[in-house]
Amino acid sequence: MNYAFYLLMITAVIATLHMIAPDHWIPISALASKRHYAFSRTAATSFSIGTAHGLTSTILSLLVGYLGIYIFGVAYVKLGSVILLVAVSVYIVINSFLERKAKEVVENTSLVVSFLPDPAFLPIILLATGLGNIFVAELSIFFIGLSGIALLTVVLLVRISLFRRIEKLEPYLIDYIVSAVLIGTAAFIFFT
After folding, report:
1. What does pTM read for this prediction?
2. Which DSSP symbol is given to 65?
3. By C-alpha distance, which of 19, 192, 32, 31 is closest to 107?
4. Residue 28: closest CA among 132, 131, 134, 150
5. Contact, 189 vs 85, CB < 8 A?
6. Are 108 and 191 in contact (CB under 8 A)?
7. Each residue's pLDDT tens digit in the chain (192 positions)?
8. Distance CA 136, CA 23 (A)
């Protein structure tokens, strides 16, 4: 198997498995349930947010991959990732508390996390840079598109089978779960 095909397959696996993470699909499912979105609106929202998340994650990965390591070194890039994850987590908790106190729509906070960038694609970018910029660009487009399709698929499968259970969850609990996942991810990055 050639190296480029291997990277393509790993990109497919990462884009797909990454969108199975609850912090990506639970906020969309909860929002769609609470607001009684039609199937088509849920599909469009899922695909749009998945694609936006893939795009922002790709931009972040490209910036870190091409600039960060050459300018700052691996240790600073790792520290910056941890700080960003902790900052987003703290923002979610504070905003969730304030929205809950004001009795506003809380699920919008965690919905933001569904499309905020994360470094899931970064290892692939770093491995692919040796194959040239055109290959990195093609791989990036593949990751972005597959992220949208994967989130769409996960959300629609959840809607078909598990939607009734999800609509009983309080949105602020989802925000706290998302925040805990982000803190856990930051700890994993920091200690590895």
Report:
1. 0.69
2. I
3. 31
4. 150
5. yes
6. no
7. 688 898 898 889 888 877 877 778 888 888 888 888 998 999 999 999 999 999 999 998 898 888 877 888 767 767 877 787 788 788 878 877 877 776 654 445 466 666 678 777 877 887 787 788 899 999 999 999 999 999 999 888 888 876 556 556 666 776 787 778 778 777 876 786
8. 27
